[in-house]
Amino acid sequence: MTTLPSSAPERRARRRPSAVAASRATPYLYLLPALVVYAAFMLYPLVQTANYSLYEWKGFGPATFVGAQNYLDLLADRAFHAAIWHALVLVFFYAIAPTAVGLVLASVLRRGRVRGLGIFRALIFLPQVIALVVVAVAWRHIYATDGTLNALLGALGSHSDIGWLGDADLALPAVGLIGFWLSTGLVMLILLAGMLRIPRELFEAARLDGASAVQEFFAVTLPSVRGEIATALVLTIIAALKTFDLVYMTTAGGPGTATTVPSYEVFNRAFNHKNVGSAAAVAVVLTVLVFLINAAVSRIGEEKDR
Amino acid sequence: MPLFRPALRVLGGGALAGVLALTACAPGDNSTSSAPTASSPSAVSTDISALGDVELVVWDQEVRGSQNEALEALNAAFEDTYPNVTIKRTSQATDDLKQQVTLALGGTDVPDIVQVNNARGDMGQFVSAGQLTDLTGYAEAYGWTDRFTDSVLSKVRYSSDATTFGDGNLYGLPQTGEIVGIFYSQSKLHALGLEAPTSWDEYLTALDTAMEAGEQPMVLGNLDKWPALHVFGPLQSNFVVADDIVALGMGNAGSTWLDDGNTAAMEQFETWGSEGYFGSSPNGTDYDAAWTAFTKGTGVFLPGGSWLATDMEAVMGDDLHFITLAGLDGQVVTTGGTGIPFSIPAKAENPDVAAAYLDFITSDEAMKMIADNGGMPVNDTAELAPADGVQNDIFTAFATVSETGTLLPYLDYATPTFSDTAGQGLQEVLGGQRSAQQVLEAFEDDYSAFVGS
């Protein structure tokens, strides 16, 4: 038996790998099939989009090379600036607020040992399952002048006939609220999974030290789920920044330009204005923005983990 | 959790190198940059039977019940008349066809007949790229200029470089007509002690009377932006002469949004918005919800298009009526136009057969067939009008406007971006976010940037 521990590494050292296996290219060979598919359907369109953004092109007929002009135009383009600002407001509704509320909900659920937790989870997760188009149509009814929301306010005693999606000040928060409704369930689920993984001993130790529920939350729960928070934020921030269907279906960017978002601008420029170059430039800027913000968020999550 | 590290590395390494490699190849079809005038056929033949077996490829968007039935019947009749021709029809929704035509016309495998929207953003762009056949020769051979009124044909005429819209070569033929006017409920008017208005003055007075009586004067569902164009268009004719509106609406040089007439029209529209003539929130109301509410008794008048009549009549019956009013120059002018015209692509394989088909589906018999199926034909509208009801109002109004007045173009015809500019602007005037003057300046910027270029 004494030979066994030393023999394993010896054997490994003795058997010389074949030239193919030894080649540094071999692992990439295994990746190749997936990479080809990925490149054809993801990278190539991405590169094409970047390419289009350097041209003035209607989507048909001849194209004129304009270099960085489409990007320079965006610098002074107020419609584009407004769209970016709206997207950042939506980040609050899609990502920040759901994470805050999701944290509270998840820690209550964890502590409370709610009966029928599975059913509750499924219900909260439901918005994720419904197609966004259906969600948008449903909320259009809720926000209508004679819709559910106004009826609810009426039942509470204050007559209301606000057209929520048609009011310049209310439309963006109204769309944001739909995003909040969509995101909260997902975020809560991710955080709850993280919290259920925390060893019970930690909570017991905290309780023995006389920590209150709030202190326990900040001392034990919050630090333990930093990774999950980062994941939730990355997912929901991406969802917020690339929102298209919800805006297209509920307000089409209106009233006026009160709810335009970058993705809607991409569509509008490409298909309505037939200005493919500018649309592609917006798409590229949006992609870079999504990457930067999320790289920053995951970097923060990562540092806190250490 | 370095979720994005590898992705960034890939983007940085592979993709950027790819971008640099690909910047050399321009998008689009550079071969179509030849002179647009090459799209007019040299010889016109109307003898279809002599052409041997032909497969005619037709792309259309007539998917709704009545229109679809009419076109199916016409296709069958065409094949009976010319047994050597087989029609291969592809039918899809308006928006889908629109996206597909843009791609298809740039390619080599084009249909023989395709429906192309009149607007500068669509037909105008294709004309300037030399992608549509000039039908002038066929129009002479088949006598189309006698069959169609000038007001209708002007909606399918562009100069060969597409700088002028409304005049010049012919690039398509429409089958149906449509018109925007004002619907009203007879019983509502009666209850308010009002007669049906016959002029803009009477209409404006009727609105005030309704307001004072606590009724909502007009119904508008403008959540999707474009419906307000159908309210402003007719209103504009009370303040601006038709020729100026046509120039503005077709994106031709020679007019301006910043004159007294347009200012008065936009201020009237602003007043309607701020004083609640459209109810509490027209911008927050769905288009379909608005006319549905009207059929159930909300509001006195509904400015809207003829296409709403069939569905509303089903609920309101004889109570529903439709009017158009005389414009500033005394003639009946109102926003309206044609159904989406049928065009022949420049690269079509069988242009002669396609032209014969165009002639066939716009013949007098075809018009009757469309009317029989519940549509509004673009020609012979007065003769084919139903005996009574709201459809009679509409057919008569369309005939009057297209034959003796002016069909004003939809405002979004004007420039490739005007549908956006106008939709946004009218929403903002209604909601009080911007003043009438500010919105007119935005309209003028769009118009003059296009006309000037």
UniProtKB/TrEMBL annotation, chain A:
<feature type="transmembrane region" description="Helical">
    <location>
        <begin position="118"/>
        <end position="139"/>
    </location>
</feature>
<dbReference type="InterPro" id="IPR000515">
    <property type="entry name" value="MetI-like"/>
</dbReference>
<dbReference type="Pfam" id="PF00528">
    <property type="entry name" value="BPD_transp_1"/>
</dbReference>
<dbReference type="InterPro" id="IPR051393">
    <property type="entry name" value="ABC_transporter_permease"/>
</dbReference>
<feature type="transmembrane region" description="Helical">
    <location>
        <begin position="217"/>
        <end position="241"/>
    </location>
</feature>
<feature type="transmembrane region" description="Helical">
    <location>
        <begin position="28"/>
        <end position="47"/>
    </location>
</feature>
<feature type="transmembrane region" description="Helical">
    <location>
        <begin position="83"/>
        <end position="106"/>
    </location>
</feature>
<feature type="domain" description="ABC transmembrane type-1">
    <location>
        <begin position="84"/>
        <end position="297"/>
    </location>
</feature>
<comment type="similarity">
    <text>Belongs to the binding-protein-dependent transport system permease family.</text>
</comment>
<feature type="transmembrane region" description="Helical">
    <location>
        <begin position="170"/>
        <end position="196"/>
    </location>
</feature>
<protein>
    <submittedName>
        <fullName>Sugar ABC transporter permease</fullName>
    </submittedName>
</protein>
<feature type="transmembrane region" description="Helical">
    <location>
        <begin position="276"/>
        <end position="297"/>
    </location>
</feature>
<keyword id="KW-0812">Transmembrane</keyword>
<keyword id="KW-1133">Transmembrane helix</keyword>
<keyword id="KW-0813">Transport</keyword>
<keyword id="KW-0472">Membrane</keyword>
<keyword id="KW-1003">Cell membrane</keyword>
<dbReference type="InterPro" id="IPR035906">
    <property type="entry name" value="MetI-like_sf"/>
</dbReference>
From TrEMBL, chain B:
<feature type="signal peptide">
    <location>
        <begin position="1"/>
        <end position="26"/>
    </location>
</feature>
<dbReference type="Pfam" id="PF01547">
    <property type="entry name" value="SBP_bac_1"/>
</dbReference>
<dbReference type="InterPro" id="IPR050490">
    <property type="entry name" value="Bact_solute-bd_prot1"/>
</dbReference>
<keyword id="KW-0732">Signal</keyword>
<protein>
    <submittedName>
        <fullName>Extracellular solute-binding protein</fullName>
    </submittedName>
</protein>
<dbReference type="InterPro" id="IPR006059">
    <property type="entry name" value="SBP"/>
</dbReference>
